[in-house]
């Protein structure tokens, strides 16, 4: 038995010393000192030996196990030291190379950039910037804006209802009424903010951003509207732009118009264009003269429809951003992909 112990010790010592990697060393350790190895099993079987052999065999087996464990620890330390030496040579850093430039702390999102750019244009034209609640009453969102009770926008398939009398606003137009209730004429105001509708595709999202504009005084005309929007279009899309008005319908304006801006990506000569598809014009917003019925809801605040008149418009901030920067899909603005967003620093 003693000879077998010495033989096992010698075999294990040879394999441990020959191990050149930590994995090979662990394999040798398990083979000779693991639970199923012969030497540990000899130790567990000492109690079954004759009394006069137990002491000698137990002592020899225990000494062999301790010696081999110490040898494993020593060899592992040698291998780790050798690996460190190799790493110091192969992983050397060239400190003479220039450092990686620090990342910018951040930037405004393209939607925020566009919103601020629009605000700057209208503030420069003498408008005030106001904001309003995103959770709105049916009265301000529909009734006071001259929406017929059967208007499709009132349907729950088109609008998010909190309860029967409360909605997530579908436009920033409710602030027309709220602002006129708080400010007598004349007024010139824009209202930017988030709005909500039940739409989701390449050109619509359930939440989007809109800018409402309104100018009310005693001698405001449709020509003033066109001149103001022309100044806006040239400030945003370039000094050579033109605008045109096309008849349309909105519940709270009469007459109502769709407003187009001349394409800034082609010469309007009918040649193929990826932006306007050769039409030469791009739709950017809806507008019109404020319907006298709307003034009727705020008559007691100084808005007598027989004395004052005005116009209003509404534009999507995402729409302006997509046109100006040739963004092909509205959802890119909300995917939070830095490869896209970092193009607009």
Description:
With 345 residues, this protein is α+β, with helices and mostly antiparallel strands. It has 2 domains: 2-90, no CATH class; 110-344, Bira Bifunctional Protein, Domain 2 (BirA Bifunctional Protein, domain 2), CATH 3.30.930.10. Helices cover 40% and strands 20% of the residues. It contains 11 helices and 10 strands. Strands 1-5-6-10-9-8-7 form a 7-stranded mixed beta sheet, sandwiched between helices. Strands 2-4-3 form a 3-stranded antiparallel beta sheet. β7 (243-250) and β8 (253-262) form a beta hairpin.
Helix content: 40-55%
CATH class of the largest domain: Alpha Beta
Arithmetic mean of pLDDT: 87
Strand order of the largest sheet: 1-5-6-10-9-8-7
Structural class: alpha+beta
Total count of domains? 2
Strand content of the residues, in percent?
15-25%
- Uncertain segments: none
Number of strands: 10
CATH architecture of the largest domain: 2-Layer Sandwich
Termini gap = 80 Å
Radius of gyration: 40 Å
What is the chains' assembly state? single chain
* Order of secondary-structure elements: HHHHHEEHEEHEEHEEEHEHH
Q: What is the number of helices?
A: 11
């Amino acid at each position: 038995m003693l000879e077998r112990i010495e033989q096992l010790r010698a075999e294990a010592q040879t394999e441990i010393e020959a191990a050149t990697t930590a994995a090979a060393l662990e394999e040798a350790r398990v083979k000779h000192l693991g639970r199923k190895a012969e030497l540990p099993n000899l130790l567990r079987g000492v109690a079954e030996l004759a009394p006069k052999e137990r002491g000698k065999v137990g002592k020899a087996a225990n000494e062999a196990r301790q010696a081999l464990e110490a040898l494993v620890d020593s060899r592992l330390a040698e291998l780790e030291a050798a690996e460190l030496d190799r790493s110091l040579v192969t992983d050397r850093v060239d400190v003479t190379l220039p450092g990686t430039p620090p990342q910018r702390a951040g930037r405004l999102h393209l939607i925020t950039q566009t919103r601020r750019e629009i605000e700057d244009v209208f503030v420069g034209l003498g408008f005030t910037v106001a904001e309003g609640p995103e959770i709105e009453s049916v009265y301000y969102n529909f009734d006071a804006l001259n929406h017929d009770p059967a208007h499709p926008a009132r349907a729950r398939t088109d609008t998010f209802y909190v309860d029967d009398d409360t909605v997530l606003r579908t436009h920033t137009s409710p602030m027309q009424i709220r602002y006129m209730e708080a400010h007598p004429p004349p007024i010139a105001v824009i209202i930017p903010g988030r709005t909500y509708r039940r739409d989701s595709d390449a050109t619509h999202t359930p939440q989007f951003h809109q800018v409402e504009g309104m100018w009310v005084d005693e001698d405001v005309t449709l020509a003033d509207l066109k001149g103001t929007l022309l100044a806006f279009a040239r400030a945003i899309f370039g000094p050579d732009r033109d605008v045109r008005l096309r008849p349309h319908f909105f519940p709270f304006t009469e007459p109502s118009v769709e407003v187009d801006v001349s394409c800034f990506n082609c010469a309007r000569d009918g040649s193929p264009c990826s932006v306007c598809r050769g039409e030469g014009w791009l739709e950017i917003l809806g507008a019109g003269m404020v319907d006298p019925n709307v003034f009727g809801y705020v008559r007691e605040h100084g808005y007598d429809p027989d004395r004052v008149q005005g116009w209003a418009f509404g534009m999507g901030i995402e729409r302006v951003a997509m046109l100006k920067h040739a963004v092909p899909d509205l959802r890119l603005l909300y995917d939070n992909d830095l490869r896209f967003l970092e193009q607009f620093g």
